[in-house]
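Researcher: Next sequence.
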Amino acid sequence: MGEDTYKPLSAITADDVASEAGVSRWTVARAFKPGAPVSKRTRDRVMAAADRLGYAPNLLAASLASDRSGLVALLVDDFENPHRLVMIERLSRSLQGAGFVTLLLNMTDATEALLSASQRRVDAAVMIGNGYDEDILETALGARRLRKLIVFAREALNPETLSIYCDDALAMSEIATHLHNRGYQKPLFLAGPDFRSTVLGRRAAFESAWSSLGHKVPAGIASKSYGFGHAHSAMLRAWTDGERPDVVVCENDSMAMGVMDALRSDLGLNVPTDVAVTGFDDTPTAGIPAYGLTTYRQPLMAMADALTQMLLDGSDTAMTRIALRGTFVARSST
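Model: Next structure:
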């Protein structure tokens, strides 16, 4: 555009981009819509023209003119678990790469968070956490105020809820086989608190896998949360009560690190000479020499991409369950 036709950036419209790129206004609109039928050559020409002019589409206006907002709410709790940050990074990267905008909501009060998501006309609400139950999910779904409700990294029990998660049966089978081959005989399973709406089937999966290898069903205890501190306390209580395992199998890495610190600092034991420890998730801290934690890496990027594809496809199929295989990671803690 020449000097005589200069406009401030806020006044640049799709018509200006269409004129600059030599296409129709509707082609400009399609070029900015993920998955729309536009050739790569045309889309690149439109994007180059928009970049030259400093144009950005009015996403709010576009959402009001369609049945989609392009917004995806990520509802998160359990912020003391470092793995949550990794999940958020993978999900937001995948969703934003497909043209969605992510909205982070604190799910400490799940009812309020779901209401906030529905008021913003989000295309989906993705629940990443533990602090919600069946009644809350039923209320949200019954009101039909959310297009999609997706549970991420857990298997949902509600028939109207979609879920994408790591295959616990495969994961715990690999962990059990590793421990069996290393000669361990008396595992103790440390689980987190039980929630009615979603399940981590890791304890049941480990018990099944361990029994199939010719062992008796292992002992198990529960922590008040999935955090470091409660796992630390649970391990000390179990030891005081007479539990003397040769390996502690933990439901996540944060709990495993709490257990390792209890064994070393409070009980004066060596890991793994006296007691071995396994975790789950393969958080960044798990690999440092101070822990060297044997764990299981969830396929988070594949899980995030599966969720994004589900939204792009517009699937509304109830009872969708996507279970993906992760990777066993053996380190010095076993």
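Model: Residues 105 and 330 are 35 Å apart (CA to CA). The chain has three domains: 3-57, 71-166+300-325, 168-297.
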